[in-house]
Amino acid sequence: MTTSIESPRAARTVRRGGVNWEKWGWIYMRVSGVALVVLIFGHLFVNLMIGDGVKALDFAFVGGKLSNPFWQVWDTLMLWLALIHGANGMRTITNDYAHNRLVGVVVKGAILAATVVLIILGTLVVYTFDPCPAGAPTDLLPTFCTGG
Amino acid sequence: MASDVVEKSGPRAHEAVPTFTVTMIVRRFDPEVDEEPRWVDYDLQMHGTDRVLDALHKIKWEIDGSLAFRRSCAHGVCGSDAMRINGRNRLACKTLLKDLDVSQPIYVEALKGLPLEKDLIVDMEPFFDSFREVQPFLMASTKPKDGKERLQSPEQRARFDDTTKCILCAACTSSCPVFWTDGQYFGPAAIVNAHRFIFDSRDEGSQVRMDILNDQEGVWRCRTTFNCTDACPRGIQVTQAIAEVKQAIMRGKP
């Protein structure tokens, strides 16, 4: 003879509908973290190791990279992923340690503002950067400016 | 000459266990007297076979009877005597003095992150509250097949074997830096005990428990610090269990 006991009607938290930001935030951290390992180390390798290494870094080098669509996409990805990754990390720390609600709101607002400003500025630079400003000494410019 | 003979023929003299002096520095707190906890040191003559719990007994029985700490079985099963020994959460009854550096003082204090009541005793209620919240009991509404027991293959049993070992000593939860911050996080022990039922093939309440742990204070607050795995006196792979619950929640099924 067996009996089945009804599930006790214990109080439980029910997930209200909508997006579960904590879950997606966590997944975002994992995915962007892996992507950033490739992007950042690739960036460091190309800038610091290949060719003349760190000595090659000047206006012409950066200008040349930012007029190449491949590096534009690379840098944009790095910018967005890293800033949102960092901001989400800061948000998590704020949630942990800001016990006062007002302090938490202010700090998280500041993090959000800084992130948005930096992302907009950075994206603008990546896509509107002029590698050949008029009137600049030609020896500082990328070779393609002078019609080489 | 005669005594020599007697000694040799008699029962072999018990080999003396070497003794050494050890300084125990215990964080004492008497809520009726002290405003703040204070460190008190005790010099003890101990044996190589003694544990931290034996040292505490020696203090309580021979030096200061007012020292308060919990212990029941004294053999690492009841989970009563978890405390912070030299900055790490350990069971006093499973930590041999000789495994610590006895040339240095040994610091013993109550678990962190839970309200201190007296000396080495903390209020365990917040810890048990989150344990209760994950509903750590078998939920099965259907009648077992043939009216007999619910069968399970050895593989199905092995799936959650590790997390059945938990003795609810709170060493893991009170070693977790996320739990220290505001005490709202469920904590490793509650997730371990949820894991024990989420992955039990006989249980039907997995979805309920996963919903509970999918909360803002649930598994997503885990930072994989591994403090819990290091603290567990039963050797449960706590951080791995939490990661498995995260995976299950992402899949939507165990």
Tertiary shape of chain A: elongated
- Order of SSEs of chain B: HEEHEEEEEHHHHHHH
The CATH superfamily name of the largest domain in chain B is Alpha-helical ferredoxin
Strand content of chain A: under 5%
Total helices of chain A: the number is 4
Oligomer: heterodimer
Uncertain residue ranges of chain B? 1-7
Mean pLDDT across all residues of chain A, rounded? 87
Largest sheet of chain A: none
CATH architecture assignment name of chain A: Up-down Bundle
Instruction: Label the structural class of chain B.
Output: alpha+beta
Q: Mind telling me the C-alpha Rg of chain B? A: 23 Å
Give the fraction of residues assigned to helices of chain B: 25-40%
Q: Which structural class matches the secondary elements of chain A?
A: mainly alpha
Task: Give a written overview of the molecule.
The complex is a heterodimer of chains A (148) and B (254). Chain A is mainly alpha-helical. Chain A has one domain (24-146): 3 helical TM bundles of succinate and fumarate reductases (Up-down Bundle), CATH 1.20.1300. Chain A has 4 helices and no strands. In chain A, helix 3 packs antiparallel against helix 4 (101-128). Chain A is elongated, with a radius of gyration of 24 Å. The mean pLDDT of chain A is 87. Chain B is α+β, with helices and mostly antiparallel strands and 254 residues long. Chain B has 2 domains: 19-122, Beta-grasp domain (Ubiquitin-like (UB roll)); 125-145 and 152-251, Orthogonal Bundle (Fumarate Reductase Iron-sulfur Protein, Chain B, domain 2), CATH 1.10.1060.10. Chain B has helices spanning 2-9, 52-63, 125-133, 154-158, 177-182, 188-198, 206-213, 227-231, 238-251, and strands at residues 19-28, 38-47, 82-85, 88-91, 106-109, 116-118, 121-122. In chain B, the strands form 2 sheets. Chain B has a 5-stranded mixed sheet with strand order 2-1-5-3-4, with helices on one face. Chain B has a two-stranded antiparallel ribbon with strand order 6-7.
